[in-house]
Amino acid sequence: MKEAKTLYVVIPCYKEEEVLPETARRMKIKMKSLMDSGMISPESRVMFVNDGSKDRTWDIIAQLHEEDKLFSGVNLSRNRGHQNALLAGLMTAVNYADMVVSMDADLQDDINAIDAMVEQYHNGYDVVYGVRSSRKTDTFFKRFTAESFYRLMKALGVDIIFNHADYRLMSRRALEGLADFKEVNLFLRGIVPQIGYPWTTVEYARAERFAGESKYPLKKMLSFAFDGITSFSIKPMRLILHLGAIVFAISILMLLWALAAYISGSSVAGWTSLMGSIWLIGGIQLLSLGVIGEYVGKVYGETKARPRFIIQQVLNKPE
Ligand code: UDP
Ligand code: MG
Questions:
Q1: For residue 79, which atom of ligand 1 is closest to its CA?
Q2: Could you report the per-residue pLDDT of 168-220, keeping only the tens digit for each?
């Protein structure tokens, strides 16, 4: 058999002291069984990233590391949010691992799906997306808002995997591709499909949070969704341009109508010029905003400095 590959499981943690011990206990069993079956190497690790928690989260991580080298830890200087914490973990793990799985600390992601992910990695896939097969445990509100969000993203032309959050496996070369995306407004589930390489999905049932409460209150959720849209689509800006064109066209019609009313003598003095200018100016303003928006959109694309391509393989025989 070929040499076993090294797996790192990266888990961002923000004020997770209530769940961490249980997560560690279950992960230990899972990792040992994967090692015993030879699917991953004994050098595989579970890497907790402490996202500037003010509670005992880091103490627990440090203690776990002390007791068992299976556990490693990354401590961020302050709270930077889930996506940044996750990226910090991924970029640290890529130095040691052949493949990295990212998951939440609260055990909502079924850890038994890791087996299937690793298997798909061995089948030659670089990215394996964990996809929720059911949202039974979510409230109606959460399910409705989340699914509408995925639909809206699709409608806006963003390449995103339906019902996939941040539970996924990535190979080392996929992570190296991710490292080339220098953007500051991180929306990983939008970026990862941009990297390319062979990918597949693995279904799992989403469980309820094991303990503690969600670190994503509605306000954070909305701002995350808004970030996702504005980081990947300039369609909202283009809509303004279309709106401007429509209002401008209407303004011409209004102008003709006002002129006709003036000529037929059925209008009060001053009405024609007022009507005409209001519509004309409004239309011109929206149109100009749209044109400016197009240029801002280009600037936005340039400042992101995303890689323009990632090469998977080169076949070449020089000489
Ligand atoms: N998280 C983080 N930093 C934050 C907020 C959340 O690292 O500022 C982590 C959190 O510890 C958890 C994951 O992100 O491991 C997902 O958060 P949560 O489970 O609260 O979100 P939900 O499942 O409710 O969407
Ligand atoms: Mg959760």
A1: 8
A2: 999 999 999 999 988 888 889 889 999 999 999 999 988 888 888 888 888 88
Q: Write out the two tokens for 247.
A: 């209002």
Ligand 1 touching residue 215 (CB < 6 A): yes
Q: Which residue has the least CA distance to atom 17 on ligand 1?
A: 215
Reported in sequence order, the residue ranges of 185-293 that DSSP labels E, i.e. its strands, are: 199-205
For the beta carbon of residue 40, count every other beta carbon within 10 angstroms.
25
**Test site for ligand 1: of 82, 87, 220, most ligand atoms within 8 A of the Cβ:** 82
And the tokens for 264? 């037929």
**Pairing of β 7-13 and β 45-50:** parallel
pTM, two decimal places: 0.80
What is 7-217+308-315's CATH superfamily? Spore Coat Polysaccharide Biosynthesis Protein SpsA; Chain A (3.90.550.10)
- Per-residue tokens: 285: 């303003």
Residue labelled with tokens 């597949």: 200
Q: Given the DSSP bridges, would you call strands 199-205 and 127-134 parallel, antiparallel or unpaired?
A: parallel
